[in-house]
Fold this protein.
Amino acid sequence: MSQHSFRRAACVGALAGAIALVAVVPALAQDQDFGIGTPLAESGTGVTAAPGLEAIKLASGLTATLVSDKVGYAPDMIALWPDNAAPTHAVICNEEFPEGVEQASVQLVDLTTGDVTDMLTGMSSCDPAKTTPWGTVLVGEEEDDGRVIEIIDPLTTTGITFDRAAGTTSDPTKAAVRTALGQLAYEGIVITEDGTVYYGDERRPEAGQPGGGIYKFVPATPATAGATITDLAGSPFAAGSVYVSRLGQRSNGDVPNQDFGQGTETGAGVWVPLETPADPTTFGLYDAGLAAGMTGYYRPEDMARDPKHTDGVRVCWNNTGRDVAGNWGETLCLVDQPSDDAEANPAGSMPVVTRFVQGNPHLRMPDNIDFDPATGNLWINMDASTSAEEPAFGNDDVWVCLPDGGDDDLLTDGCARAVTLLDGEAEFSGITFLADGSGFYQHLQHRAQDGDATLGTSEMIKVEFAK
């Protein structure tokens, strides 16, 4: 997913009222393959109202088709249905609406016709959407008091409403609020085969408080491998235990794991057990994580599991940063390593976090993320300041980053620009790969100008690799 390959280039930026950028100068790397032919040398600029395929530029070796131009104003993540191997539909989250227009929070997209069906309304900032191994879909809210909702039989689910004040849905047999996972600003979610969930709290640090933490849910009744459920009562999300990651393992006398706090955001740590609030209207896990000394990050965004990692579970997520302040963002990866030290690691495993991609003035404010299951390359959508907001910057890009090779560091061996937007009012969102690695689906989000109720739709596209 090739003819030419390039190592990540060094980029120089300066802060002097605005950010001044210099061009990327890639260096040839004969032994590495991004799978895209020749990468794009620079980001797009400007604003266009042209339809989806005319609003993007692709690296050679990539082709794109328009799947639908009927999805909501701000479609975010994509859950392929019934799976990523042979999907016929996609369940998507719509995270915001144009001014004066009410739209559905969760929609079903027919991948053949592009037709869109409204499934559920009433959520606030619906963002993550994930298909589970047992045949349901999990969607969540990117709000500080956000909840996750599990949906069964999505092809026959319409007309469901969510009452945020009560924390209930109009039909809990079709869409159940999963209070066992707690409340936080849901963004990145990884679901394993047995129902264990790794997820992040998409908060920024503020007034000395840490940003969002990384959490782990362990079901009370694990899922049965290869089995689907016919009743939401049989879901592993119905009950379980929640832990938060706290990095730092230096002992202080007889007290283990005391080397935590600001400054310790990589390395080995511990999963600290939390009490999940029984009251679904409370804020919940952030305050519990603070009390537990959790490790916080700068707005943890989307999260994906590394399909090539076999020694424990490896998940990677983006810390989005803030480019106008020179905080370019980054990608970090957590390996959940087995541990037999029950006192130090009550969850039976320990989180070990390393940096994988360091942002720069070109690859900045990373958001959605997914692995190519065929190559192990990591694909990243930017959600950054664009030329429409800050003339010193280009528009949003999609980047592909190589796995770490045989060198001495643990970082990607290089990233290349694969797709760029020609519309500085829009952004990429929801990148989701097919199981065979032949391509991916994603959105061109909020193509309409803000406040224009007559243009309240965005586009879903499919990008494929040259055969």
